[in-house]
Amino acid sequence: MKKPIYNFYLLLLGSFFAVFHSCQQKSTQENGHIVIENPLDVKFGDPFILDDENGMYYMYGTGGGAKDGFAVYASEDLNNWENKGQVFYGNTDDSWSVANFWAPEVYKFDDQYYMFYSADWRENPTNEEENFRIGVAVADVPTGPFTDIQNRPIFDPGYPIIDANVYKEDDRYYLYYSRACYKHPVESEIADWAREKGLFDEIEESWIYGVELKPDFSGVIGEPVMLLRPPLTMDDEQAEWESRSVTSKEVNRRWTEGSFTFKQGEKYYIMYSANHFGGEHYAVGYATGDSALGPFKKASNNPVIEKNTASGGEVTGTGHNSVLFTPNNSHMYAVYHGRTKATGDDRVVFINPMTIDENGNLEVQGPS
Question: What is the per-residue pLDDT across 190-213, written as a single tens digit (0 to 9) for each?
């Protein structure tokens, strides 16, 4: 009698594990989306995820333990990430870049991996406090090492620039970047209001530009086009949320930065971040247009990512997003950084499903 009972218990145990495994599989999917346990255990700002199309994802960002350069994390499931170490080193004796290594994005073009990033330029004859430019490095594999394709920035527009993003359309490449706020005071009704309140004498702004890249990434073609900037008037529907760092008396700057451009159907989307990257009001909006270089119109449902403390959550400082597309663009995920009570000043990564409805309205299901 023992053998039949033994077999019965084996069968019962096998059934239990089959059901358990089935439940586990279901728990990782929700409406077709991968369920992410946010925030991730990755201390990155400005996160960007590369899908290497072989079952591996690679995440790059600002910080993450890197010194004068950038690190990479790898994952097979978007939840569990392994630090693969530093993959790019700047501030060497012969490098053009010397400090403030920010916002790397890595793209796979023709079986090579190209990293676009921001850093301070060694060439600084007037000793500017902010001397940011954008460079590009290349590697044979996503874990590097990445080396600069040339010992200089891609180009010099005559003002500091950060937050490179690249969009490829057919055989043409477009570079998007943010002109830094530094020494860029702009007159607006917000600036008038700040002076009247005795808060700030001037309000500096950062604006987003786009320009076509040379195919070898050695320079640009034509002149940059200004695509997005903070609102000029107080009655603009974007003015309240894009001016919170000023109206909360946090700082005398309004940012338009951290852009990410993509195309869905016949429409171009450009996502961007506003407010102080180090404060609680950092948030994400988007604009749409009919061409890669605009003109773009900001959406009426902005912001689409912002702090959730007003609704009982504990996430603040949400911004500088990128977008991860699954194969065949069947699903989209917003990848961004934020802070929680538990993480304190450390920025950590969040990944939330993102959708675009039949009317072209973009929504992000987060922060969660």
Answer: 999 999 999 999 999 999 999 999
Q: How many percent of the chain have pLDDT more than 70?
A: 92
Rounded CA separation 148/168 (Å): 20
Bridging pattern class, strands 220-228 and 207-213: antiparallel
79 near 36, Cβ under 8 Å? yes
Inform me whether the pLDDT recorded for 84 exceeds 90: yes
Two structure tokens written together for 195? 């002076």
Burial of 199 (0-12, 13-18, 19+ CB in 10 A): middle
Ramachandran class of 146: left when φ > 0, alpha when ψ lies in -120 to 50, beta otherwise: beta
What is the predicted pLDDT for the residue at 290? 98
180-190, pLDDT tens digit by residue? 999 999 999 99
pLDDT by residue (tens digit) across 148-157? 999 999 999 9
- Contact between 107 and 114 under an 8 Å Cβ cutoff? The reply is yes
* CATH superfamily of this structure's domain 31-364: Glycosyl hydrolase domain; family 43 (2.115.10.20)
Burial class (CB in 10 A: 0-12, 13-18, 19+), 346: middle
**Mean of the per-residue pLDDT values for the chain?**
92
Domain residue ranges in the chain: 31-364
Tokens of 189: 């009704």
- Strand, helix or coil at 329? helix
My answer on whether omega of the bond before 303 falls inside 30° of 0, hence cis, is yes
**HSE on the CB side for 103, CA within 13 Å?**
26
Per the CB < 8 A criterion, the answer to whether 208 and 225 are in contact is no
Which single residue is written with the structure tokens 């700082």?
A: 251
Tokens 């802070």 map to which residue? 339
- Exposure pattern of 145-159 as b/e (b: 16+ CB <10 Å)? ebebbeebbbbebeb
Q: pLDDT tens, 16-53?
A: 433 333 333 333 667 677 899 999 999 999 999 999 99
